[in-house]
């Protein structure tokens, strides 16, 4: 099958799947090379697949139809994609059990609020984000102390398995898709949502660290705004004010929270 692929590193296991299957990936649409795209760009270059870093427009999408592309496949891609007439299949992968959890930052929201909707949905790509008919779904169990990065890794592993099931009978599954009814839309999380309040409990602080993982959380540390990507901590009685630095050296920082302390290795701390 001829495919146009749209995505970044996070779900690039799906591109691996198409390459292994022997499909002809005509073009990979992604972002400029950086920490979120380097893997998928390297995959495309190794397989001599054309790369496109521009936002999709109608004329470019129509040219893909002229090249006999049959499937647009989208996984972790931020831009709206015009769907040209004559395209056989347009499929998006969303990392929740739709219709619950539509929106741009669902994994962190899952871990902060509503983990029962964790999973993968393959659905028809439409003009409205995350709203197309559902094709296939798979629930993912959320473990104790699950983090953004461990959940992302689970989805990376499970996504191509679900995609393989779709490709076994894409025409039949596509024809028998199920419309989304009801559900929920989760707004994009803000910088405030991503910011640590040292007046909170150790448990809540560590939950926020897990919910954002390698994306990082913002916090005031010793009077400076910082981005923190990892921490440990516990409940422990102390005489420090919440937010006060208990200990600091070139290896780690220990900060007091309402009922305990949070330790941060300096390699996980970036001053902004």
Describe this structure as you would to a colleague.
The chain has seven helices and 14 strands. With 272 residues, it is α/β, with parallel strands linked by helices. It folds into two domains: 2-175, Rossmann fold; 202-271, no CATH class. Strands 3-2-1-4-5-6-7 form a seven-stranded mixed beta sheet. The protein has a four-stranded antiparallel beta sheet with strand order 10-13-12-11, with helices on one face. Helix 1 (13-21) packs parallel to helix 5 and helix 4 runs antiparallel to helix 7. The chain is elongated. The model has no long low-confidence stretch (mean pLDDT 96).
Helix fraction, binned, reads 25-40%
Which fold does the CATH topology of the largest domain refer to?
Rossmann fold
Strand content is 25-35%
Q: What is the top-level CATH class of the largest domain?
A: Alpha Beta
Structural class: alpha/beta
The biggest sheet, with number of strands, parallel, antiparallel or mixed sense and barrel status, is: 7 strands, mixed
Low-confidence stretches: none
The CATH architecture of the largest domain can be named as 3-Layer(aba) Sandwich
Indicate the radius of gyration in whole angstroms: 21 Å
Q: CATH H-level name of the largest domain... which superfamily?
A: Formyl transferase, N-terminal domain
> Can you write the helix and strand succession as a string?
EHEHEHEEHEEHHHEEEEEEE
Strand order, biggest sheet? 3-2-1-4-5-6-7
């Amino acid at each position: 099958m001829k495919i146009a692929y749209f995505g970044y590193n996070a779900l690039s296991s799906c591109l691996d799947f198409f390459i292994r299957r022997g499909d002809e990936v005509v073009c990979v649409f992604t972002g400029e090379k950086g920490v979120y795209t380097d893997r998928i760009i390297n995959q495309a270059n190794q397989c001599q697949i054309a790369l496109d870093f521009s936002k999709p427009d109608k004329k470019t999408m129509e040219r893909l139809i002229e090249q006999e592309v049959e499937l647009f496949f989208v996984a972790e891609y931020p831009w709206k994609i015009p769907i040209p007439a004559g395209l056989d299949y347009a499929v998006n992968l969303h990392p929740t059990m739709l219709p619950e959890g539509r929106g741009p930052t669902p994994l962190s929201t899952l871990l902060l609020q509503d983990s029962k909707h964790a999973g993968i949905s393959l659905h028809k790509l439409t003009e409205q984000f995350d709203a197309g008919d559902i094709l296939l779904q798979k629930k993912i169990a959320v473990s104790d102390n699950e983090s953004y990065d461990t959940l992302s890794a689970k989805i990376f592993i499970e996504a191509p398995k679900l995609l393989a099931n779709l490709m076994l009978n894409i025409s039949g599954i596509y024809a028998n898709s199920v419309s989304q009814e009801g559900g929920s839309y989760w707004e994009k999380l803000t910088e405030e949502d991503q910011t640590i309040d040292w007046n909170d409990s150790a448990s809540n602080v560590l939950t926020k660290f897990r919910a954002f993982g390698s994306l990082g959380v913002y916090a005031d540390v010793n009077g400076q705004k910082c981005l923190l990507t990892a921490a440990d901590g516990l409940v422990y009685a102390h005489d420090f004010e919440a937010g006060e630095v208990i200990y600091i050296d070139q290896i780690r920082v220990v900060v007091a929270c309402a009922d305990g302390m949070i330790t941060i290795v300096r390699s996980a701390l970036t001053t902004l």
